[in-house]
Amino acid sequence: MATINDGGGGSHLTCRVFVAPLWQGGDSPYPEFMKKASIVPYVSCRREFSSFFMCYLSKCLLLVGLALLLPACTTVKVSTKPQRVTQEGINSAIRLKKIAVESPGRDDDEKYVGFSKQTVALLKRAQKLDSSGDREVAAEHFLEVAFDARELLVDFVEPRKSPAQQALLRVHNRALARFAEFWTVDPRRKGRGPYIFKFADHTYEIVLGKDSDYPRNFFDKAVAARSIKGRGVVKKNREGYGAAMVGIREQRPGREEELKFYPARGMHVSATLVMGDPRPGVGKDAPIVVPLSIKNPSLTEMVTVAGHTVPMEANFSAPFELLLNGSNELLEGLRGFFEAEQRESSSGLFLLEPYDPDRIPVVLVHGLVSVPMIWRSMIPELLSDPAIAKRYQFMVFTYPSSYSIGESALLFRNSLAEVRARYDPRGQDPLSNNMVVIGHSMGGVLSHILVADFDDRIWNQISDVPLEKTRFSPEAKAKLREMAYFEPDPAVNRVVFIAAPHRGAKLALSNLPNLLSSLVKLPGHLLLNTANLLAEPAIKDLKIPFSKKLTSIQSLRPDAPVALALDASPYRKGVVYHSIIGDKGKGDTPDSSDGVVEYWSSHQQGAASEIIVPTGHSGSYKHPLATEEIKRILYLHAKR
After folding, report:
1. Starting from the edge strand earliest in sequence, which strands make up the sheet with 202-208, in order?
2. CA 555, 570, 578 angle in degrees (round to 5)?
3. From residue 253, how far is each of 95, 259, 261 by CA, in Å?
């Protein structure tokens, strides 16, 4: 039981409130409401209502309903246990011995049995050393196992992909992965002298391979992909040679400019550590030189081992698992909607890997009450396709989804301009002349606005008086001009709309969305802009009423100025656009709907393609048919 007070000492309500799931971790997404409504334990069942407090009761019920949705919405939850990787190596060594014993008569059986016994002993010893904190000696054990396993792989007499070869390959990969975790944090790697490891009678000098895609000191930390277990992201792996890792470059003081356009948790990318062909050192007792290359598996599918070309191991989902660990899709979306003021500072265009001037940018844009984590399974799926990964680089745009569409579209344009100024100031890369944008729901509308030729259609929906002749102040005119007059982006050549309400949605006319809108906490500068407009006599020059709190909800009404102007505006010449539309069982007719957006609003005349996927609104971007259609579109675009 709880008593909720209106803060004025008068009205209060005693009721049951079950909203705990929204505040797991102690962080409330609704501090403004909670400041006004204090909740304290109360034992009686008394109820005292007032007309003033009925608003708060509605809010409580709304929050309860949203809280009940949380368990059904995916939370990314993973744990990282390096011991799993070591144990997999031990199990593979035992498996190799079993194969050799059960299939006697071959020349190398005795060699495999001996290697297996030695490897199991070394890995168990390394496991104990690692647990006791003696990581450098543990690393020497892992390196010895990886090196010996590679030597056997080179001389392997079994048919390719035989059980024995696969067991030996797993021993090498797992031992190398555990070594990599130490290598990336070892302070000695930053020195100028030789990087030496000693084990028994062997001395190894580690050098960076000439074909490495990253500098030796680029990543601050590496995590073995096989050590990550959990839920919330679909696994996308590629079996092969090498140690699949997550390379992490952290946000640190001094890197503000370098990592400005990367997530707050830093850069997380798929990387594979590959051991190249060792070579003997020069001189007596010289160490064996072991080249290690840090490869980008999106760009490299095959590697050469002792003259043989083999697939390279990779894990494309592990970076997203670590980056999003602990995040709940719905909760993050609610925070981005209700607490726009807090989300504003973390909005913009973000890269997911180091910028590549040669690959085509694909920007993905989320929708209302949503965040970029909705793409956590689609992007790994696309990156696992070599034909796509070698031609495209993926970025995400995020914004406070309660912003009016005009404000969000302006933020989108400004964010693109900032990224281009940083990475392509001369305008020579695909970033400035050949982009693809994919938007879901309201993100599809923002993507459409980016390539629409509005001319003066937005302003004509707002006023019959030319902007320069209105009685607004110069400052207000400048703001209105920025929102209503802009050119389509010349770099975006193809757009994919997923369940986009181009003509608005009838749902925005109902009471519930408007109640949601009333709970939004917009940034002060947005409210001030609206207040300044309302305070001026020039408000009479406008033919539509201005709300004191204009949010995306009002912008998504079918009669909203932007929706009407967008429907009347042509696409920029040369833009190719595609539609992916959800359907909840009514068929692809003007009367069908995905439960939120109707077909008449999603359909775009002149689209290069349109497919209907049998799913609701929130499932439209992750349906297998939608993913395959996006792949097809990207294959097609790459041929231009």
Report:
1. 196-199, 202-208, 288-295, 267-275, 243-249, 221-224
2. 80
3. 47, 10, 15
Nearest to 368 by CA among 446, 437, 482: 446
Q: What is the dihedral of CA 492, 497, 501, 502, to 10 degrees?
A: 40
DSSP 16-58: ----GGGGTTS--S-HHHHHHSEEEE--S------TTTHHHHH
Q: What share of the chain is helix, strand, coil (3-state, %, to 5)?
A: 45, 20, 40
Nearest CA to 93 out of 127, 49, 140, 62 is that of 127
What residues are paired with 363 via a beta bridge?
395, 437
- Kindly report the backbone phi and psi dihedral angles of residue 439, in degrees, each rounded to the nearest multiple of 5, phi listed first: -130, 135
C-alpha 284/C-alpha 391 separation (Å) is: 48
Count of alpha carbons within 13 angstroms of residue 480, beta-carbon side: 26
The predicted model gives 545-550 an average pLDDT of: 63
What b/e string do you get for 175-210 counting C-beta neighbours within 10 Å, with b at 16 or more?
bbbbbbbbbbebeeeeeeeebebebeeeebbbbbbe
Rounded Cα gap, residues 49 and 12, in angstroms: 7
CA distance to 110, 229, 322, per residue, from 299 (Å): 39, 25, 21
DSSP, residue by residue, 84-141: HHHHHHHHHHHHHHHHHHHS---TTHHHHHHHHHHHHHHHHHHHHHHHTT-HHHHHHH
Residue 251, C-beta contacts closer than 8 angstroms, at least 6 positions apart: 259, 262, 264, 265, 266
Separation of alpha carbons 523 and 506, rounded Å: 27
Residue type at 328? N
Match 């050799």 to its residue by tokens. 100
Please choose, from the candidates 217, 237, 183, 216, the residue with its C-alpha nearest in 3D space to the C-alpha of residue 380.
237
pLDDT digits (tens, 9 = 90+) for 185-198: 988 877 777 889 98
- Is 602's pLDDT higher than 80? yes
Per-residue pLDDT reduced to its tens digit, 2-41 = 433 434 444 343 343 333 322 223 333 333 333 333 333 3
CA distance 236 to 382: 10
CA 245/CA 251 separation, integer angstroms = 19
Per residue in 432-490, pLDDT (tens digit) is 999 999 999 999 999 999 999 999 999 999 899 999 999 888 888 898 899 999 999 99
Give the torsion sign (CA, 175, 177, 181, 184). Answer: positive
Cα separation, 368 vs 237, whole angstroms: 31
pTM over cut 0.70: yes
Taking the C-alpha atoms of residue 594 and residue 617, their distance in angstroms, rounded to an integer, is 5
Q: For residue 41, which phi and psi values (nearest 5 degrees)?
A: -60, 145
Q: Distance between CA atoms of 30 and 335, rounded to whole angstroms?
A: 8
Give the pLDDT confidence score for residue 216 in this predicted structure. Answer: 86
Burial class of residue 8 in the structure, from the number of CB atoms within 10 Å of its CB (0-12 exposed, 13-18 middle, 19+ buried):
exposed
